[in-house]
Amino acid sequence: MSSTHNIDPQAPRTIYARPTAPAAATTKATRALLSCGTVAGPLFVVVALIQAFTRDGFDLRRHPFSMLSLGDLGWVQIVNFVVSGLLFLTCAIGIRRVLRGHRGGTWGPLLIGTFGVAQIGGGVFVADPALGFPAGTGDGAPESVSWHSTVHGLAFAIGMIALITVCFVIARAFAASGDRGWSRYSTFTGIAFVALGGLGAGLGDWRIVALAVVLGWGWAALVAARLRSTSLQLAREAGDI
Q1: Residue of 65, 100, 38 lying closest to 211 (CA atoms)
Q2: What is the structure's pLDDT at 170?
Q3: What's the average model confidence in pLDDT over 111-130?
Q4: Distance, CA of 76 to CA of 80 (rounded, Å)
């Protein structure tokens, strides 16, 4: 008989489909890696929003967060992109440690890592000035698109696809463990992110896209926190702490 048949049905469920986990999943290092993910989302959103409401000439309705990388203070958003991307990339290693051998253990960390790399790319390669920002820029679209703006757009597209996809990958992982609440939350986030992002882009209202960013980046941070809690629980059960 399989060992899964001996699990106490009253025992608390974790994201694991099986009662055993790799030793790396219970270490302090793993929890530190996952903590990077809990910081990455809020850090990016808070820093971006502060700039959105304080940078001269920036209009959140007309301008995406990416344009904060332009102008004399553009370095702040560039650093914000790169640091949050590095934090998500680090978190992906922790996710791999916790989910290794279980549902989502391959694609979950790979997609989060891709999302992190895309954010770094979005910071290194900046968009072109347009729509009156920074101050002194013409009010319309640029006459031509630079190569670095093209790379920025590509990084953005790759990052968004990775984030949307990982929502459903993690939803399946939670569903496999019987954690229906987190599974539904992850599925809802993926669907809502697509809907809000598409609506905002279609209407040309970047406030709606910003709401999608808050939702998506916030979900990533909460999942990292959830997996960190799982790692801590496993460590206690294994007598490691």
Answers
A1: 65
A2: 95
A3: 96
A4: 6
